[in-house]
Amino acid sequence: MGTGKGGAYMGNESTLNVDPFAASIVGTGTWGEKYQAPTSEYYKAAAAGITGTGATLWANIEGMAPEVATNICGSDSLRGQTTKTRLDRQIQQTGLSVKKNISFMWDPYFTCKVNGTGPTLLENLVANGGDPIINDSAANPATGALTVYGYNLTGSSIKIKYTTPLGQVQERTATVTSHNPNYGQTAANGDFRLESATVNFGAYSLGSGKYYMLYVTNGDGKTNKGFYSKLY
After folding, report:
1. What is the mean pLDDT of residues 54-64?
2. pTM of the model
3. Which of 88, 85, 218 is nearest to 153 (CA)?
4. Residue 188 confidence (pLDDT)
């Protein structure tokens, strides 16, 4: 993400245009045209490849972005300041595949003011560090249950937008009924700090081969900034 070589996008975003940061490296076009696959697929493949070896998979969350006119942050003409949303999207891409997320302190990108004005990335992280992040989910339309795996899920309500087998677009919202803040500490897959949260929407009809979108608002009133969808 920091050099434009990887793309953090969801499956149903493959036909959308790449963001300006990526476009500065790969040119204009869609995510699906410019990248072989989202980064999440590479993590899944790496996790499968080391199964049984005793190795542990870590993810490097890149704390900078390709430089464009809106994120100039120093004398380096190749790199500029990234955004909290891009960091969240990178974390989402790790899914349940990695056991630890790390990020190098790319000075001055965490601490500089873009073009000399505005908050630093560090200030944005402090102010918005409690935003929910959705890494994965498991839907069971027959029972109405849906479980989200991610971060900052305490006191959450979850909204689902989905398409029925007849092509109708619908949405439902429910309050979390079961929250496990220590999910990642005992789970076979996923980062140590991952949480899980389950809601029950009541039975709903979700079309096979259709994407559903999730939006989480936690007890602090913060909603995920990184878009999340999954193919059912």
Report:
1. 93
2. 0.94
3. 218
4. 84
Every domain range in the chain assigned CATH 2.60.40: 133-231
pLDDT value for 22: 96
According to CATH, what is the number of the domain 133-231? 2.60.40
Is the predicted pLDDT of residue 76 greater than 80, yes or no?
A: no
> Could you tell me how far CA 114 lies from the centroid of its own chain?
24
How far apart, in Å, do the first and last CA atoms of the chain sit? Answer: 27
- Please state the rounded mean pLDDT for residues 99-104: 92
Do 132 and 218 contact (CB within 8 A), yes or no?
yes
Q: Which residue's entry shows tokens 């398409």?
A: 163
* 104, pLDDT greater than 90: no
Q: CA-CA distance, 102 to 163, in Å (whole number)?
A: 36
- Model confidence at 81: pLDDT above 80: yes
Query: Would you state the torsion angle of the CA atoms of residues 16, 201, 226, 131, taken in this order, to the nearest 10 degrees?
Result: 170
Q: What is the DSSP string of 53-109?
A: S----EEE--S-EE--TT---SS-SSEE---HHHHHHHHHHTTTT-SEEE----TTT
Distances (CA, A) of 205 to 23, 146, 171, 199: 38, 13, 11, 16
3-state secondary structure of 138: strand
Using CA atoms, how far apart are residues 96 and 84, in angstroms rounded to an integer?
21
